[in-house]
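request received
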Amino acid sequence: MSWYNEFPHMPIDDLRALKKGIDAGFKGFTREYGETIELIFEPVKQFMILAEDFMLDTPWPIILLLISGLVWLGSRNWKIVLGTVITLLLIGFFDMWEDTMKTVAMTFVATLLAIVIGIPIGILMSRSTLVERLVTPILDVMQTMPAFVYLIPVVMLLGIGKVPGLISVIIYAIPPIIRLTNLGIRLVDKDVLEAGDAFGASYWQRLRQIQMPLALPTIMAGINQTIMMALSMVVVASMIGVQGLGQPVLKAIANQYFTLGIFNGLAIVGIAIIFDRASQAYGKRLQKHSEVVHG
Amino acid sequence: MASQSIEIKNLYKIFGPHGERYVDMVANGMTKTELNEKHSHVLGLQDINIHMPAGQIQVVMGLSGSGKSTLIRHINRLIDPTAGEVLYDGVDVCKMKKGALRQFRRHKTAMVFQKFALLPHRTVMENTVFGLEIQGVPAGECERRATRWLDRVGLTGFEDNYPNQLSGGMQQRVGLARALTNDADILLMDEAFSALDPLIRMDMQTVLLDIQKELQKTIVFITHDLDEALRLGDRIAILRDGAVVQQGTGQEIVLNPADEYISSFVKEVNRGRVVKVKTIMTPVASDAGSELISVNENVLLEKAAKTMTDSNQQNALVVDASGNTVGQLDIHDVIAAMVTPVEHEGAEEEASAEAA
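response:
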């Protein structure tokens, strides 16, 4: 009755051989193509370095002005701008300016790449139900697989540093923008699309002049989610050498430095709130046409 | 180029994965219910043959589910037919290739929708130029042409409003301006005024009739409202269960309804506003004096009765467009023709007796 009490599993030796085989295979692949892949990601790395250098080399008052200015452009709301300035001043005052700038640079690049990659995938998904059926389970895996697990192959391939960190952040943060682009386009009013067809709109005209503008509020919600998830991934990514606010948190965990942890944690929360409020206010402003409803 | 007529020939639409298999069965008399129960396909249209005259308003009337919206969507092929032809200027729209169809939609047709289907993120002006923008007309030219039509439908001063800020009637004026700005030969109006209040609907009908006097486009107008059909339609086709039950002028349909179904439709109609004088005139009597007033042969009874009573005349002469006398009119005949036939009232009494 041993099969009844204990689940009959694969013989231990076979299992070990299987795992070893896969590992060896992947290691071989790494040795073979690791450098090529690294080369492919070289432009991304340069871009990443550029963004980080810009944030670090520019004197802090200018960065402060720049961020507040962007927040103003996005939200047109003095309260949000004021909150932004106070948060940034506090971060600077508690000596977290440099780490924060690194994190902001990382989040910015990750979000930008997520948008550039995610929106076309979302558009393809909305066009074809087959693509939707293929991509959805991949997104499910990306969202539920513990982030630590896919850090392993990324590190094996690319080692420790900015690029593998960036890739893992993007893997973690890209699903919402893909899903919400798809959803937004699928939710566009069929009557309006029919009007587009009736006037002879081509595929691109339909996409550019009807579907994208009408899906934009939903897509903006996706971008907002992507930013939030990218920020929350920063701590995990610090395990593979991503610099920024995640590293002190990691150090605090290892050494039980409560205050260090909470300060840096709060700094992440602070910039998360700034990004969130600014991008949401911007998304809302995009919908100003639907605000005034004829009574 | 002037507008041409639209010729719909033996058009069938059967919804479902294998519609084409059942066309012959339907042609041989299978009913909608049978088709649905035995083969789970839905009969949309069967054997439609309509000649839609050039430069006139063709109304297609029917209740919901009669297939009228399906029919109008075959003219610009938003729906593909299962069998049959839609000919415009000798070309079968149903056989057009993708690119040709797109050009046809851009330059030959414009459509007005029941639910307006305006782009909510665009202003009135931006909505109005939509068709031209799709055609690739330069922006300045677009606005120049749109301004003219916005003015014509009474929307001057609202160019920068968003559709959401306008009432239903005004939104549909935008829809109409958008279609007219396209300057297409064919204007397709799918229950364009059905969502509007009765007063605004009358108003829009007047706008449409005024514009049509000037433009003489081939207009296909879908409605479920007989009064609207009679007011607008140069010709009317009545659909039921996807088939044409009767077609002709409004007067023909009101005076000679083809079956019970149509009689029940037309019984409430004000005949004085449908029937023309020439229908009931009698040959000129030899003693008809030249002192009698004259009315045009195409004047409606209601108007003739008013003209005659205003000038206190029992009789009037009927003249054609060039002024020749073609008949004469007796006020008694006019009134008799305006009231609803007696048998009909009898039927109504019976019905109320049954109900009691």
